[in-house]
Specification:
With 253 residues, this protein is α/β, with parallel strands linked by helices. It is built from six helices and twelve strands. The protein has a six-stranded antiparallel barrel with strand order 7-8-9-12-11-10. Strands 2-1-3-4-5 form a five-stranded parallel β-sheet. 30% of the residues are buried.
């Protein structure tokens, strides 16, 4: 199955972190922020199908962004990574150098166009590059030891468990003790605790299978309101970002 392309933003401008990021994440793209261009080059070697958008308004000491991009696109280990440019600079000659001389495949997006137009262009570029792949929803695998759990109330009983992975539409999970539910059963009172943040939902058991660590339940959420869905998206992104941050920190500059 084609799981799509990881989408990286190198030195993301504040407007992206505050507004554009949420739009892209809610469009079901797997997004990561990078804030070290030296380590970024090394990390991107492990993501040959990725897309990286570079904020060239950020100043770097060792060379120029044009040199950095040229080296990225000619290095056999990163040549397949697709590059796009973000900038508030509306200099047509600057854009021309990146688009025509360097031939960056993911465009030159001028942030001065405003949030709505920038988001529209950005999403159009991601769609054209099939960044979502065949996957409909991004999911986050919950790391061991994370303060993430759930419970289901049924009558006077409360069944608690741990979440293996989570998306905005459902989760795969294990219950701590035997439970009475099977496929198609409804769970009317489902409470998630996402690192101290409570989320109230309802859902349906969509699948059950036996694994080496117990019975794995797949639960699909029912009628998630917009505020709850946004909390889920934020949690998914921060979980993925935390794993990426740990990976980047382990890379020697």
């Amino acid at each position: 199955m084609d799981f799509g392309r990881e989408v990286f933003f190198l030195y993301p401008p504040s407007v992206l972190q505050e507004q554009l990021l949420s739009i892209v994440v809610q469009a079901e793209y797997e997004v990561y922020l990078l804030k070290d261009h030296v380590r970024a080059r090394k990390v991107l070697r492990d993501y040959p199908d990725a897309i990286v958008f570079i904020n060239i308004d950020e100043k770097i000491r060792d060379g120029t962004w044009e040199q950095w991009v040229a080296e990225m696109m000619t290095d056999p280990q990163t040549a397949s990574v697709r590059v796009g440019i973000l900038s508030y600079n509306n200099d047509s000659q600057l854009a021309r150098r990146y688009l025509l001389e360097l031939s960056v495949p993911c465009g030159f997006i001028q942030l001065k166009l405003g949030i709505t137009e920038s988001a529209r262009i950005l999403l159009k570029v991601l769609e054209a590059n099939e960044a979502r792949g065949q996957r409909k929803h991004v999911r986050a695998v919950i790391p061991p030891g994370a303060k993430v759990w759930f419970n289901v109330r049924s009558g006077r009983s409360i069944y608690r468990g741990r979440i293996r992975d989570l998306s905005a539409v459902g989760m795969a999970c294990y219950f701590d003790d035997p439970v009475p539910w099977e496929v198609s059963d409804e769970l009317a009172d489902l409470q998630l605790n996402l690192r101290g943040q409570p989320v109230s939902l309802s859902g349906t058991v969509a699948g059950v299978r036996t694994t080496d660590t117990g019975r794995l339940f797949v639960i699909m959420f029912a009628s998630v309101d917009s505020a709850t869905r946004l909390r889920l998206y934020r949690f998914i992104h921060t979980t993925l970002q935390a794993a990426m941050d740990a990976r980047i920190a382990a890379v020697q500059p």
